[in-house]
Amino acid sequence: MTAQPASPALSVAMSVYNGARFLAPAIESVLAQSFTDFEFLILDDGSGDGTAAILADYAARDARIRPIIRENRGLIASLNQLLDEARSPLVARMDADDICLPDRFAKQVAFLSAHPDHSVVGCWAEDIDEDGRAWPVQHPDHPLMHTEMEEALREGRSVLVHPAVMYRRDLVRRVGGYHAAFRHCEDFDLWLRLANQTKMANLPERLLRYRHYAGQVSKRHATEQAVGAAIAREAWRVRGEGKADPTASLDTLPPIEELDMLFGESGVAQRVRGRAAFGLLHSRSALTGDGLDLIIRHVREGGAREGLWRTAARLVRFGQPLRAARLSAALLAA
């Protein structure tokens, strides 16, 4: 059995909920890292599948694994608990359905050691499907330098692959950890809060294999994620203006219609709806779910319509002619 370090240089933080399907290869990819001085915290968030048995088996073989078994409290509570439990000043995030390449930790630890002015480092990812085959993506690679990340954040673009990041634990805790209100976009909100406190970067190497599959949380909650990210940008804006962040103490975000009152200014709700609408144009789950109502409301409020006719055509290709007709009617009326 591999011994657990008394004072590890790195804490690896993984939360898992009913993740038995991909859990073993995810764990093995962490245990196979060339950098070995770590503890591996795996929190089972009340799973009802075989997750607990898999964790017990691996923990019996490798003492670096510290399983935490408890009732379901959700991802954000789990991530914050992992931050509290971690014994190292550095924390590497990892998800239970992804795969680390062997040198990921070594290269990220080396970067943070050489760049004390940076507190977050990610890397590029290789996108794969549920069988490990290449998953086609159309978005560009994430920016590398902090200045590029700031520009991307202003535009609402993704800057880091959450399960591929390594960060300094104390600073993440000092800015409040993961905020409960930003469910399904808790990482984007965290990067916005950290961007004003430290520098962030990505290594231009694919050191994580990021898995896509049906039923993935990010696909099921695309609309909530887009709305939350748009609200996080508004909170970032008011913090930059030296004002108090009205979302800081919230457990849940209010409906879009109440945002002007929450922020104490007009136009917030319309901006959030517009940004969220354009973040959903290529999401099949959102267009065939509650995202279409948000887009139509945006059109009726006089919002920008660029690309929305193509979205109507996309709905036809998705086998949703009635939804396509609803969007087309809203566009014609506007």
TrEMBL record:
InterPro entries: Glyco_trans_2-like, Glycosyltransf_2, Nucleotide-diphossugar_trans. SUPFAM superfamilies: Nucleotide-diphospho-sugar transferases. The keyword Transport does not apply. Residues 11-175 form the Glycosyltransferase 2-like domain. The keyword Zinc-finger does not apply. It holds the Pfam family Glycos_transf_2. Keywords: Glycosyltransferase, Transferase. GO terms for molecular function: glycosyltransferase activity. It comes from the Bacteria. PANTHER family: GLYCOSYLTRANSFERASE, GLYCOSYLTRANSFERASE EPSE-RELATED. Belongs to the glycosyltransferase 2 family. This is Glycosyl transferase family 2. It comes from Aurantiacibacter gangjinensis.
